[in-house]
Amino acid sequence: MNKLKSVIILLLLPLIFSEIAKADEGMWIPMLIGKNYDQMKKQGFKLTPEDLYNINKASIKDAIVSLGGGFCTGEVVSNKGLVFTNHHCGYEAISANSTPQNDILDNGFYAKSYQEEKPISGLFVQFLVRMEDVTPQVTAALKGVTDAERGQKLEDINNKLIADATNGTGYEGSVKDFFDGNQYFLYLYETYNDVRLVGAPPQSIGKFGGDTDNWEWPRHTGDFSIFRIYSGKDGKPAAYSADNVPLVPKKFLPVSIKGVKNGDFAMVYGYPGRTDRFLTSNGVKLATEETNPVIVKLRDIRLKAWKEEMNKSVDTRLKLSSEYAEIANYWKYFIGQTEQLKGLGIYAQKQQQEAEFTKWAADKPAYAGLMDSYKQLYAAYEPYAIHRTFVDEGLHAPNFIYNTLVTFNLLRALDAQKDDAKAADEIKKELKEQTDSYLNTYNEPSDKKAFAQIMATYYTDIPKDQRPQFIEDIVSKYQSATVEEAFMKFANELWSTSSIITPDKFKAFIENPSLEVLSKDPAYLYAKQVSPRAYARNVFGTKISDFEVQKEKLDHIYLQALLEKNKGKLIYPDANSTMRISYGNVQDYASKDGVKYNIQTNLDEVLKKYKPGDSEFDLPASLITAYKNKQFGQYSENGTVPVCFITNDDITGGNSGSPVINGNGELIGLAFDGNWEAMSGDIAFDKKYKRTICVDVRYVLWCIDILGHADNLISELDIHKN
Ligand code: ARG
């Protein structure tokens, strides 16, 4: 062996070892993060577990909020309650405050004073006060109960635990199950309801690249927006009032503009929504071969119908763009998930794991037949699986259906709570929110068109013997050359006879609501038949609910077995909208085609993608001027401004807006997406390809400072230059 070679090998050795030692996969429970501490230290973490989670003094957890019940995450970045999150998380608030006359979605907006901040009704943030393992109490309460009693008993013990813990505190509580009912944690939250929009870049920055670049790296999106939490004068949560004051938080994150390099420690602290990492091969097969293609097909119909209308007027575009973006986001997600489940051979991987499991379980009677039971269960369900997807993604998709069913339930609840003024107020508030959201996204031509096309697809695609009678009746009553036309005729009649579909009539109805009137309305009568419970009774008998109940049982046993099998090893539970920490490193990768990607993108590349007038790749004039004049302020690196970077942290939907934090506890970016090569990540984490896409905090500050001239906001931050 020559000298050079051995030097190279010596140099490589630590690398090889650190590869093995590296975490990256895993969404860890903050309270238990001490178990990961050694590994975190090895990867470059400089603080202590108590700096991350502590219930006796301020810790980083106190700077993290869940937005609106968990759809996104935000982080407090000033001692005046300023919060950073993603642009796509603020999208609804931003677009709802946009009109053709004052179009902050397209033009951007930065409040230059507290007075200019915009209250967002319905938006709230939650701080985690503390969490507690309540597995012993819950397990004790469930001991020996029958299947039939179980649901009620679980609800009772959860309610008792929550009532005991929240009593007199004003906190909200929830009990969540982990590892499919093998562990339970109680969470206490402090909820702030006065949250105001402070700023956002023009969407040509905040959504740069649009759906074309969505879920892909390399990326050039300035995916951030800014909010502020307000409290009563006493610092406690308070309903919106002009007298409220900016929240003085327990903790806020300093911002580092020092920059990132390959291999740096990076962690993401936030609220991942849902993963399905323990899904069996049966579920993978069902998704790739049956259900995912249906989801994509149905979303495609809605997107095309909406886009056509959105192209006709600015008003319609502003009105529909938030919901459009949401549908489009998961339309592309399911395309990618299918492609990568196949491309990465996840089915075979899972089968191999299951074979190994079965070998381990052979001498354990409780687990030995488990994989066979799964197989049988899925075989019985498979003929109905597509139909079920058609219900969720098709029959329930038209906004009038959802609005009708929710309105009915709320009015009924209101009726039941007549004598409880406080409860009635709560319900009225929900009713108002539902009404607004219906009216805000109403668009007759696209709603009708999507409805008729979805129903026609459904009619032709589901097995004939599963068609419910009321659907057959519609098709024969409105007989036409095509099924789509028949449903269009039906829609036209529904729209003209119902008093709750068109905005004018619905507004009049809701001013003077009556359950009696609603229950006779043709739209309600139709919606009722597709409501989940009535529909299942009509078509499936108990096929779907049986599947769910049985699967839940098998999952519980499977996870119990896996916990036993992995005793003493670090194992993390699936995401369930509770606070988690994922840690890893800034890390480059090579795509499946062997193309090597840098860890970072920059402003030069943004300009290279620029397409004037394009709906996805346009840029604001201010950005182009600042670029030409090299106005990079303190945010430049190598003569340009860094835009996005990647880490190997483990995130999913709900994590959007989460802080990306370096080894010193400083904010270096905001997590906002995943990459195409690893779109199967919610079902199986692929170490080689899975990356978290983050907007570099230097790009965020450059936009606020140099393009937005919002010195007021920049001066609130604690910016670390070294
Ligand atoms: N893929 C991102 C996420 O799920 C959302 C990006 C929103 N942008 C869009 N083009 N729809 O967090």
Account of the protein in words:
The chain is α+β, with helices and mostly antiparallel strands and 722 residues long. It has a domain at 131-186. It has 27 helices and 22 strands. Strands 1, 2, 3, 4, 5, 6, 7, 8, 9, 10 and 11 form an eleven-stranded antiparallel sheet that branches. Helix 10 packs antiparallel against helix 11 (314-343) and helix 10 packs antiparallel against helix 12 (346-361). The protein is globular. Arginine (ARG) binds next to helix 9, helix 11 and strand 20. Arginine is lined by residues 88, 207, 210-211, 214-215, 325, 328-329, 653, 656, 672-673.
Name a few traits of the molecule.
722 residues; 11-stranded antiparallel sheet; 7-stranded antiparallel sheet; disordered N terminus; binds arginine; single chain; globular; alpha+beta; 14% strand
Weakly predicted, low-confidence segments: 1-21
Give the bound compounds: arginine
Roughly what fraction of the amino acids lie in strands?
5-15%
Taking all Cα atoms into account, the compactness measure Rg is 26 Å
Q: What's the β-strand tally?
A: 22
Give the N-terminus to C-terminus distance in angstroms: 43 Å
Q: Main β-sheet: number of strands, strand sense, barrel status? A: 11 strands, antiparallel
Give the structure's gist in a few sentences:
By secondary structure, the protein is an alpha+beta fold.
